[in-house]
Each structure stands twice: as C-alpha cells, then as structure tokens.
C-alpha cells in the first residue's frame, strides 16, 4: 500500500467507527460476501462519489466486532468532517456508526501509523446461555477461575515470537515477533472479559491465546506452560482458535493523535 | 382463566425464562406472527407431548424484552424439573433461555400469584447511535438531565388511577388504579435507565410514563405537571408511547417464593 502524496486539494481524513460484526464477513472487501468495508464505501460513494481511497486499521475476521475501528480516507472532495460524519450515519446500516471524523496529516495511515491496538474477548460463563449475547460472547458453561487464567496469561506479556499463536496461511510473512503490553482476565457477574494490548497481532493471535487459556481451565494445558508453548514456535502446542463472536477490537492507538479517539462502550 | 385443581398426578411447575424480544411479536400466541409463547410451547411439546397448560406472567408487546419472565405449567408428565430445563434449553431458539424450573404449590399461577413486577427502560443518550443497541434501547440524541427526570418521576410513585397512562382498548376494564412502588432514572456513561416497580401495569403504562418524561426533557411538559396529568384521567395529556425496543421486564415477584428467582443481567 503506498501513501498518496498530498498535493493540491487532496485531503486525509481519519474516521473512527464502531460496528456490530455479526452479519459481516469482516472488514476487507471480498467477492460474494458483505463486509464492513463494502457497506462503508457504498455509503461513502453516495455522499462524495467514487473519488476516494480508504484504508482500514486492520483486517478483522467474519463475526468479529469493533467498539472502535479506524479508517483513513484520501479524497479531493471538500466536504466538512462534521457533515461527512452526519451524512454517513444517515446512509450506513444501523450496525455501523461513525463516532468521529477529522482532518489528519497527509502521511497518516490508519494501519501503518498505528502504535498499538487493544482487543477484548467476552465469555458468558454460566450454565445457561444469555439470550442477549448470542453472537456477542462465547458461551462457556463450566466455571472459569479468572484469577488462575489472569496469572497464567501474564506469560504472554513481553516481546515474543508468537508463531505458536498464529494460524499459518499466506497472510503472515517475515517477523513473527510482537510486543504484548498487557493481558488481563476479569469477571463481572457471569461475564468474563479478557483484554490484550499489543503493538500488533498475528492472524488469529487473540483467539488462539484465549483458546489456550480455556485449555488451561480444562486442565489440558498446565498453567505455567505458556512460556514453553511460545518457545516451541509451533501452532500444534497451543489451544484451539476460540470462536470469533466473543472478539471486539476495543481501541486503536496512534502517536500524538489519540486524545479525541473513543470507542463505544459495549459493557452496557 | 381458572385454576385446574390439583388431583392425581397433575403437577404445577414454575419456569423462569429470559428472552430477546426483537424478533418476537410479544408473549401471547396469535395468528400469523411468531410469539414467545408459541416458540416455548413448540419446544415443550417435543419434550412432554401436548398435555399441558401454560400461563405467562404478563402480556408483553412486540419487540419488548425480558431479563426475567415467569411461566406456570400444569402437566401430568413426570419429567424432573432439572431435566425439563435442560431439554427446553436444547430445543428453544437461542433467543429464549430457561433459567430455572421448579415444582410449586397447586394453586400457584404465574400471573395471578404475582405481587409486583419491575420493568426497566434503556435509552442510549448520545448524538451517535450505538450499533450494538439497535432494537435494545431507544436512541435519544439530545442530552437527558437524569436528575431532573428522576425528581419529576417521583410523582408517579403511590396508588393512583393511571387512566392517563394507558392506551385504551378492550384490554383494560374496571379499576385503573395501580400502586407504583418505586421509579428511578439513572445514568451510566451514555446509557440512561428508567426503572419502575408496581403491583401491576396497565396496557403501555411504562412506555407512556417514559414518553411523558421525555416530553418534560423537551420542555413541552413542566417537570411538576405529572400530578395534574394523573388527576385528569385522560390519555391526551400525557406524552407519546415510547418505542417498545427499550423496554425489559426485569423482575417478577411472588409472595414467599422469590428467593431463588433471578433474571439475566443485560447490563453487560
């Protein structure tokens, strides 16, 4: 992806959105399936025509949600940011909302300028399912010891080669090292939330981290085994990829450009 | 509705359920529209056949949700309560969950034995909609003063004739007096929640109470005007009926039979 040089009236806008991913096949446009990017660009073209270039802050999988997701938009159209936000919120489906829209420096890029991202993973931890969380949290029937898992998960923190926590396909090439800044497992009533921040994530990395913690809960992986799983650099030693429905991109951080960014709070 | 006398092996069961009402046309069976009662009875008949009599604790409107809803079930089938709960949770759609099932006295009736009910009404109070609350909260763009409305709403509390807060149709006959035990308006971030407990509710009563408070917010009804609206006993002086989507039956109380009842918490 190349940065289009700023010249003449070319503008660069940063849009912060939130979306319910249940009915979408992820962010990135693909044939024969509705994606967030396609819905977004369809609405955008009704407002400013087809002269634009849109970059999302990350690929997200089918069924994954976003409390906060960032998009950079290059266009020569002179529409004011506040008007674009309002117009998009009229044209977009109800499952996508534009929270913020503002001008940014010409070299800003939603994906490459990002310094870190935070994901949360929601688990409804009760014998009986929650009818309001179908598609919005993993339903896990057996009692989770959140303190045990929180302690075990601290082994994820730090700069590691996360090959063991990556679905290998053609997407991931080169350096598999990522810097995990924090990982927490907390409980509020029957809802267990895992939260992880890192400078970047490999394909399926959060979902495999969660799946591995659930294997620890089940006694199939020892609580102190995560360091040796990391060291093996082999996907077969980690746990299964947890379902997409519990995963939310929660926060996207940019250097010097973070103060006004705020996602929606789905903890309500 | 008459109480079927307990005789021989006739049993009386109390089932506590929760449901996402977005796709249902309320509780009560009707032609040409899917209701919670129909979905429930369809699942039930797969487990115990057609020999049963089901009574719900209240009618609920199309699109209204229930964190807790109670059903009494008369049947001669010998199935154990725990097994019935598990089997129903396998057969029911994911939008309905059985939280509890237990034997109760022969004269218990989900509707007539009820001593009080509590409803909550959720309002997403932000300029931008929340993509996760489409169908689960009213979206209200202009800033709500929850303290102003909480204070005004205290005039609802007490034993009053609520004719002004009732949609008149053939449903409501006789005494229009209800005893409102408590009413509160609170905020958590952008979510405003109204909560009301009463010994009973007239048709659309909560939604008209909410609509009237929103008219007070808009300055179209004075904050101290509720007592005189009540006194007029005329629907034309109260506010509009607020949308169904924000309304949740939250708790159903029975005398001496309340300790184990607990709904799901949708505040997550």
Order of helices and strands of chain A: EHEEHEEEHEEEHHE
General form of chain A: globular
Major pleated sheet of chain A: 10 strands, mixed
According to CATH, what is the topology of the largest domain in chain A?
Answer: Alpha-Beta Plaits
CATH C-level of the largest domain in chain A: Alpha Beta
Mean pLDDT of chain A: 92
Number of strands of chain A: 10
Counting helices, strands and paired strands, the structural category of chain A is: alpha+beta
Description:
Chains A, B: It comes from Ruminococcus bromii. Chains A, B: It catalyses: uridine(38/39/40) in tRNA = pseudouridine(38/39/40) in tRNA. The structure is a homodimer of 268-residue chains. The first copy, chain A, has 5 helices and 10 strands, in the order βαββαβββαβββααβ. Chain A is α+β, with helices and mostly antiparallel strands. In chain A, helix 1 crosses helix 2 and helix 3 packs across helix 4. The interface between A and B is medium-sized, with 28 and 28 residues.
List the helices and strands and how they pair.
2 copies of one chain form a homodimer.
Chain A: E1 11-19, H1 36-48, E2 52-56, E3 65-75, H2 81-91, E4 96-103, E5 114-124, E6 138-139, H3 146-153, E7 158-161, E8 177-188, E9 191-198, H4 205-217, H5 226-232, E10 247-254
Parallel strand pairs in A: 3-10, 5-6
Antiparallel strand pairs in A: 1-3, 1-4, 2-3, 5-9, 5-10, 7-8, 8-9
Helix pairs in contact in A: 1-2, 3-4
């Amino acid at each position: 992806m190349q940065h289009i040089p700023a010249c003449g009236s070319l503008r660069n806008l940063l849009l912060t959105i939130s979306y319910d991913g249940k009915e979408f096949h992820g962010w990135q446009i693909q044939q024969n399936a509705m994606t967030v990017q396609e819905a977004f660009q369809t609405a955008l073209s009704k407002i400013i025509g087809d002269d634009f270039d849109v970059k999302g802050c990350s690929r997200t999988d089918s069924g994954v949600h976003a409390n906060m997701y960032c998009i950079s938009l290059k266009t020569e159209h002179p529409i004011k940011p506040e008007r674009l936000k309002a117009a998009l919120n009229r044209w977009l489906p109800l499952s996508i909302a534009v929270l913020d829209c503002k001008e940014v420096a010409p070299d800003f890029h939603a994906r490459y300028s990002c310094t870190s991202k935070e994901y949360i993973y929601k688990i409804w931890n009760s014998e009986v399912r929650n009818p309001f969380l179908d598609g919005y949290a993993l339903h896990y029937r057996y009692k989770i010891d959140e303190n045990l898992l929180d302690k075990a998960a601290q082994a994820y923190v730090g700069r590691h080669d996360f090959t063991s926590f990556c679905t290998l396909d053609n997407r991931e090439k080169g350096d598999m090292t990522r810097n995990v800044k924090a990982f927490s497992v907390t409980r509020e009533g029957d809802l267990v939330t895992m939260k992880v921040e890192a400078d970047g994530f490999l394909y399926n990395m959060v979902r495999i981290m969660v799946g591995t913690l659930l294997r620890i809960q089940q006694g199939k992986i020892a609580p102190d085994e995560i360091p040796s799983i990391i060291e093996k650099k082999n996907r077969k030693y980690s746990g299964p990829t947890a379902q997409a429905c519990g995963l939310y991109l929660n926060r996207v951080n940019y250097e010097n450009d973070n103060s006004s960014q705020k996602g929606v709070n789905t903890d309500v």
